[in-house]
Amino acid sequence: MRLIFQDQTFSFELLRTLSYAPYGGADIGECLSTAYRIKEGDFESWYTEWYRTAERIHELAVDSLERGKRVSARECYLRAHNYYRTAEFFLHGNPKDPRILETWGKSRSTFRQAIKLMDTSVEEVAIPYEGTYLPGYYYRVDDTPRPTLLIHGGFDSTGEELYLEVAAAALQRGYNCLTFEGPGQGAVIREQHIPFRYDWEKVVTPVVDYLLTRPDVDPDRIALMGISLGGYLAPRAAAYEHRLAACIANDGLFSNQFGEIARKLHRGNDEDLNNPAYVEKFLEVLTSQYTGVRWAIENGMFTYQAESVHELIRKTEPVTLEGVAHKIKCPTLVCEAEADHFFAGQPKMLYDALTCPKTFMLFTAEDGAEEHCHFGALLYFNQRVFEWLDETLDIK
Q1: Does pLDDT of 380 surpass 70?
Q2: How confident is the model at residue 359 (pLDDT cuts 50, 70, 90)?
């Protein structure tokens, strides 16, 4: 699927931003007019134009709020939040770039303005974690104990974005929902400077502990969803955290080792990849040719706090479910996107390694849902996933 850009990475990120329109996070014309102003493959042009759009919509939100127009203000704040997030996306090549905190900060603050204006009860929560805290949002239907969906993102998502991707759909179906950011994600990497860790059960267990303190959570019906890299992280957590009633991998990911990725892209003697200097030079050439490779390495070094590509490769070596997947006990849903340019073949590897009750769910081009994490078809994705979850948790 190509949308305006021939560059696959730019096209996909535009599709991602646009996909939140059904849940109030984008307007089609705003996204397309912004994209037409962007120079193909140019990270600076991407930032400039999305930031320009975000600022314009932010001003509309402020104006509406000042005039007492609550619904209009909420809608504009939600869209501004998404556009600021999109603007910041490609800035991570220089972790000291002040625009990272400034632009991401505006994405968070505009979202927090929006939730103050929602009809649904939304709480900002701080979950105790290893001497600090994990930031999250708790979305509550009412005061009665309900099935609760715990959601985290992956390699590049933010906790605020998760409302538009899944939480809004969960609320519509009567689920309470807790979205949170862990190490390597959102505020935890940007403000607390805590990088990704492979043993994600150490992250999810404190979150489950927190949920079980709440009287509005049904303790027997807590489900976990991980998105993108979360398709590895959530199953990893479920292998050791057995209080979960279900696990959803969107999309399934068996391994995300940068060394493995480098080997797949390499056309020469793989023995050369044992030489750090050679690897640096090899990937330098790739980043000059492929926007997606450049972004993946820059964001990887940012979120893993790696000083070199060789260190990034070393830090991601443990990111595999080999010898782990069979420990999952709860029913698990593995999603696959037919044309996923990130995870090709990975969901089937995860599914085959599972010994728990399991379901494989393929999303196709015929559905318009073939892209990574099914962007472009979130209404359809949420329909299928929540129908599976209703059945799994015996919700009538």
Answers
A1: yes
A2: very high
Can you give the CATH number for the domain in which 206 is found?
3.40.50.1820
Looking at residue 18, what DSSP letter applies?
H
Which of 119, 147, 169 represents a domain boundary (last residue)?
A: 119
Task: Judge if 204 and 105 occupy the same domain.
Answer: no
- Residues 352, 302: one domain? no
Residue 260, classed as helix, strand or coil, is: helix
- pLDDT tens digits along 213-233: 999 999 999 999 999 999 999
Mean pLDDT of 26-43: 97
Answer yes or no: do 144 and 187 share one domain: yes
Pairing status of strand 176-180 against strand 217-227: unpaired
Report the alpha-carbon distance of residue 260 to residue 278 in Å, rounded. 16
Place of tokens 């014309």: 29
Q: Place 342 in a pLDDT band, splitting at 50, 70 and 90.
A: confident
Q: Of the candidates 2, 3, 7, which has an alpha carbon nearest to the alpha carbon of residue 292?
A: 7
Same structural domain, 126 and 111: no
Instruction: Quick: pLDDT tens for 167-188.
Output: 999 999 999 999 999 999 999 9
**Residue 271: both structure tokens together:** 């023995």
pLDDT score, position 367? 94
Q: Are residues 188 and 221 in the same domain?
A: yes
**Catalytic residue check, 288:** no
CB 227 within 8 A of CB 155: no
State how many domains the chain has: 3
Scan for tokens 């009567």, then name that residue: 174
By three-state DSSP, how is residue 128 classified? Answer: strand
pLDDT at 280: 72
176-180: strand order across its sheet:
121-129, 132-140, 176-180, 146-152, 217-227, 246-250, 332-337, 358-363
Catalytic residue among 19, 72, 228, 308: 228
Q: Of 119, 142, 163, at which residue does a domain stop?
A: 119
Question: Does 302 share its domain with 324?
Answer: no
**232 HSE (CA, 13 A, CB side):** 22
Do 214 and 305 share a structural domain? no
Q: Stretch 249-270: mean pLDDT, rounded? A: 78
Distances (CA, A) of 347 to 106, 249, 252, 259: 35, 8, 4, 19
Residue 275: per-residue pLDDT: 73
Q: Alpha helices, DSSP H only, in the chain? A: 8-18, 28-36, 43-66, 70-88, 98-116, 161-162, 168-172, 186-190, 201-211, 230-238, 258-265, 276-289, 291-304, 309-315, 346-353, 378-392
